[in-house]
Specification:
Helix content: 10-25%
Structural class: alpha+beta
CATH superfamily of the largest domain: Diaminopimelate Epimerase, Chain A, domain 1
Shape: globular
Order of helices and strands: EEHEEHEEEEEEHEEEHEEEE
Strand content: 35-45%
Radius of gyration: 17 Å
Number of strands: 17
Largest sheet: 17 strands, mixed
CATH class of the largest domain: Alpha Beta
Number of helices: 4
CATH architecture of the largest domain: Roll
Number of domains: 2
């Protein structure tokens, strides 16, 4: 069976995308894992299906590179919106379904994609770190020099600690470079490695710094793959109107035999 695929990236977070609006693609866990393999497959942090939706513009189905269905992926959502546009679904505003519910999105004239994330109702402080769910669970830890961190080693230790090993958690190490500029490096569960960028992690880091009274509600976040913008409104301990903005680009397209 030949599969037409498209490769997109958002600040270095890269994804295989398949147009499944005709519901003809049904991938097994092993197949997804093989497709995402960077040496023997196409290579990606995750795989997404653009599925039809009776209620909205489309449905986002996301799988981690380990082949398992994943929770919400912010950069993935932005890339899928750009893919929908490239496939002819052209609108001023998008509404689509994902694993954590409904999302809105917009594409600026320069191609920048803005994605509305889920509200955040609970920020827990634990062992000097912040834990929250921004569509995916995140652990956010402030560090002095993020560039010297062994992100894979330390992230793996936290992700597989007694508190998190059952469900897993994404681990973010954050350094504040300027008043409104953070540098974030993320170890992602499901990838089990550091990725160049993580949209839900960037969002969590921006909220953590506001919660910690160190930051602002309009935050630039630098990752190894580029810069993203996070904006939100804070109402007591509730965060709403959370928007993640940044680039999303097609890398290449092709056909692969399963």
């Amino acid at each position: 069976m030949d599969i037409q695929f498209y490769k997109y990236q958002g600040t270095g977070n890269d994804f295989i995308i398949i147009d499944n609006r005709l519901k003809t693609v049904d991938l097994k866990e092993e197949q997804i894992r093989d497709l995402c393999d960077r040496r023997f497959g196409i290579g990606a942090d995750g795989l997404m299906l653009l599925n039809p939706s009776a209620e909205h513009d489309f449905e986002m189905k996301y799988y981690n590179s380990d082949g398992r269905e994943g929770s919400m992926c912010g950069n993935g959502g932005r890339c899928l919106v750009k893919f929908a546009y490239d496939m002819g679904i052209r609108k001023a505003e998008y509404v689509f379904n994902a694993s954590d519910g409904m999302h809105e999105a917009e594409i600026d004239p320069d191609g920048t994609v803005s994605l509305k994330m889920k509200d955040v109702d609970n920020v827990e402080v634990l062992h000097g770190a912040f834990v929250m769910n921004t569509g995916s669970p995140h652990y956010v830890k402030q560090v002095g020099d993020v560039m010297t961190m062994d992100v894979v080693k330390r992230g793996h230790e936290i992700r597989y600690s007694d508190d998190y090993k059952k469900e897993g958690i994404n681990v973010n190490f954050v350094q504040q470079e300027e008043e409104d500029l953070l540098y974030v490096r993320t170890y992602e569960r499901g990838v089990e490695d550091e990725t160049l960028s993580c949209g839900t992690g960037v969002t969590a880091a921006a909220i953590a710094f506001y919660h910690n009274e160190n930051g602002y509600n309009n935050v630039r976040v630098k990752t190894r793959g580029g810069v993203l913008l996070v904006e939100y409104d804070k109402m007591d301990e509730h965060y709403e109107n959370v928007w993640l903005t940044g680039p999303a680009d097609r890398v290449f397209t092709g056909t692969i035999k399963l």
